[in-house]
Amino acid sequence: MGAEKPTNQEADPMHGQSGNFYADLAKSVEQQRSLRERTAEAWKKYAGYGPDYQRRNAERAQSARVKIDQYGGDQLTIIASINTKKFNSAGVEVKGDAAKQPGLTEGEATDLHDYNPESRNHADIEAAYNDYLARTKPEERLVIFEGRVRPDEFISDRATAIRQASESGLLQYLARRDGVEATSGEPTDEAVARYCYERGVQPEELALVLVIRGLTHDLTKDLPDDISMDIYGEAVVNGLEGFVDYSNEQKAEISKDPVRMAKLQQQAVELAKRQNEILSSLGLPQFEIDEQANTVRFASAEDRAALAKAWDPSSEGRLSDIHTIMTEARDKHILETIVSATEDGKKVFMAYGGSHVVSLEPCLDEFYGKAEAASQPSSDKESELVGLIDSITPVADKSAMLSVLKDPRLVMSKEGREEIKKLINVDDLQPEQVRRLVDAGAKEKLNEIISLRMKEALEQILPLEALRSDNIIIDQKESADIDPIEEIRQIVTDPELTANQGAMQNVLISERSQYVLKVLKSDLQDNPYARETLAHYDEVLKAFGHDFLPRQIGFELRNPPLAGTLQEKVAIDEYQVLNAVTDLEQFDDQTQSPQNKEKVKEFIAGFDRLAQQGLTLDVLGDNVLWKKGTNGELEILIVDTGSFSNDYEGSAQSVQEANRLIDRLRQLV
Fold first, then answer.
1. Which residue, among 439, 388, 337, has the nearest Cα to 129 in the 3D structure?
2. Could you give the CA distance from residue 412 to residue 455 in angstroms, rounded to a whole number?
């Protein structure tokens, strides 16, 4: 039998969607021609860096905030980033590496990129990015960033990424974290050079501008002793004859060979002489050349500053003109990158240096229609958290989650916490999603929000006027050397108070006190089971002893009714969790010594003694911790004495999980 004919048009390579391959091909060619023509027409509107640009850029800078525009509905979200002056606590402006440090205040807009992870610029960009994630599907997303692709170690975390590469680093970090497709908006060095050469720029001129620009961006840095290899590198980039593009391995070999190094430096020196002729003809300071040592340097800090000004687009002169042509090449490629992406169905998110965005605005207006200024997304912690969660596990009702996060009932009621869990679909999360949420800092962000809500709700939960000896019942058995009322007062009046949230209690933490304050949630005050968990401390202490428990003082307010405890503070960050799902491999390593085996046996015995009282320790959460002490001794600590009644039907599964952990521990010892 002969081969069967295709049963549908898609199976036939000579047929396309219309049923005719040649017709589809012609249509595709026509669409591409139309796209090129439309892009070319848009490019004719390019503003460049003349007076109109200067005016619009000055207007942009007045707010000292990023400018966020949307084109074509939501086809393109483009951000003109900003940098602001940074001031230390004494009100003195700081620059360079000092401006990357935390704890600085911000002032008016200034030039260049912002490398401070705490700046408004980056908070606004991240908030806009989270908003972008919330309104796009994963397959639609494309992030376009400025500059080159950064190695993984340069964008390992948010702060590192920003300190290394400003907003470009931030976008690359966010995109990699969230699995969003990302690409640089930059043309190749060869494409920039070709664009410049077509407009009359000589290769030695272009190399000169590039080396000056690269070495004068930060005038606060010390003068370099030798820039000969910088000159050599830019000569390579621009394809100057005789300058070789060596691999990293070859560079490493050459650096160990003084003869070969001297030869390369001599080439750079000869080029620097020719570039000095250009500088001389322009009336600009020249490089200082030492032919004996084969070195090139700036003659003085003043000369370096003069050369920095010479290439600035706002200046006049040949170097400024060349830099403007270079920037045009970049801007043209940025436009083509955006257009190509949106025509392919992508919804683009892009943040670039503000000058590029302002100069491209007329082109984008021509291609997409006038921009709509996006409402400044709130860079508040609640919006950031919702965007972060949604990027990992879709949030069906983002407005509902925002409402819960902004409501003080989040910390006052058990329902607030349960509503968040329901909106995130906690029960359906895969382990990989949980890991990504943890790695992305979701837990820390939620705790920050809980702390804010707690400060707002404290007057309702625990009013100061209620902290009176005639209004409080105190169980002083655990510690007679402190004044519990004063400890509580110190904690709740601390403006730096932080808070964590459990299923039934809120934990308030202050550096002012050596105790943490745990209070039962308002809607659980009349819940017998919830109150029993607080009352079980005595039984747990009797079963396990002081070696396994921090000191604790119970209290109860009469009006408003409130049950709580003061618990001796523990450096929780030094411990690991010991619960029903713990990987016991590391824990097992610590049980090899006889004394540590005994410690585990004591813990198991305490568990058994508690069971004799009809109770099982709650080990489902972060309630039991362990660490290796400074002397190698194993420490196990019970920081939440919540316990289940063994005869209560609703706790059967929890009791089983606890018994499973104890069985695993028995096998270790």
1. 388
2. 11
Radius of gyration of the chain (CA): 33
What pLDDT digit, counting tens, does each position of 444-493 carry? 888 888 888 888 888 888 888 899 999 998 876 666 678 899 999 999 98
Chain centroid offset of residue 529 CA: 41
| Distances 643 to 40, 577, 624, 635, 658 between C-alpha atoms, Å | 72, 17, 12, 21, 10
- The two tokens of residue 449 are 């929000």
Rounded Cα distance between 373 and 66, Å, is 11
Q: How far apart are CA 211 and CA 610, in angstroms?
A: 74
The enclosing H or E element of 609 equals helix 594-612
Q: What is the DSSP string of 118-178?
A: TSHHHHHHHHHHHHHHHTS-GGGEEEEESSPPPPGGGGSSHHHHHHHHHHHHHHHHHHHHH
Q: What is the strand order of the sheet 505-509 is part of?
A: 472-475, 552-557, 562-568, 515-520, 505-509, 498-501
Q: Which of 86, 50, 54, 80 is nearest to 65 (CA)?
A: 80
Q: Is 380 exposed, middle or buried (0-12, 13-18, 19+ CB in 10 A)?
A: middle
| Residue 40 parent element (H or E) | helix 21-43
**Nearest CA among 385, 380, 372 for reference residue 68:** 372
Give per-residue pLDDT as tens, 47-100.
Answer: 888 888 888 888 888 778 899 999 988 899 999 999 999 888 777 888 888 899
